[in-house]
Amino acid sequence: MGLWSWWRERNDDGGLPGGRGIPAPPRADRDVPELVELEVGYDRFTAGAVVARLEAEEIPVRLLTMDDHGLLAGRVALHPHRILVRADDQERVRRIVAQAS
User: Fold this and answer.
1) 5-26, pLDDT tens digit by residue?
2) Which residues partner with 86 through β-bridges?
3) What is the pLDDT of residue 74?
4) What is the sign of the dihedral through the CA atoms of 73, 60, 28 and 17?
5) How many beta carbons lie within 10 A of that of residue 50, not counting itself?
6) Residue 76 CB partners (closer than 8 Å, separation 6+)
7) What is the pTM (predicted TM-score) of this model?
8) How big is the chain by its Cα radius of gyration, in Å?
9) Structural domains present in the chain
10) CB neighbours of 5 closer than 8 A, spacing ≥ 6?
């Protein structure tokens, strides 16, 4: 038995090969909410305002900009900005997005 195999046996925690890292818990043990993706329009300012309103309502939200932070013009700008929200909050979010439009 070489030094490397001795070290691996003592430090193998079930993570990555070679004993590096901590294994992720099984999926059933994690409480992961289902996420939905909603369009918020092509205007970057309106998308930011919608996100600010949702955060003020304490709704977790993530903005997915489709124009590379305003730096990329062209075909990518033809895609609307989107937000990720929990499926449970979907109806409230749709009302807020409709008010902002």
Assistant:
1) 655 555 555 545 544 555 555 5
2) 35
3) 59
4) positive
5) 24
6) 66, 67, 68
7) 0.62
8) 22
9) 1-27 (no CATH), 33-100 (3.30.70.1530)
10) none
Can you tell me which residue has the tokens 């305002």? 49
The amino acid sitting at 72 is: L
The answer on pLDDT for 52 being more than 90 is: yes
For residues 71 and 51, what is the distance between their CA atoms, to the nearest angstrom? 20
Structure tokens at 51: 């996100």
Block residue for tokens 């062209």 = 74
Overall residue count recorded for the chain in this entry: 101
Contact 63, 83 (CB under 8 A): yes
Q: Which two tokens stand for residue 53?
A: 């309103």
Question: Which residues lie closer than 8 Å to 51 by C-beta, 6 or more apart?
Answer: 61, 63, 83
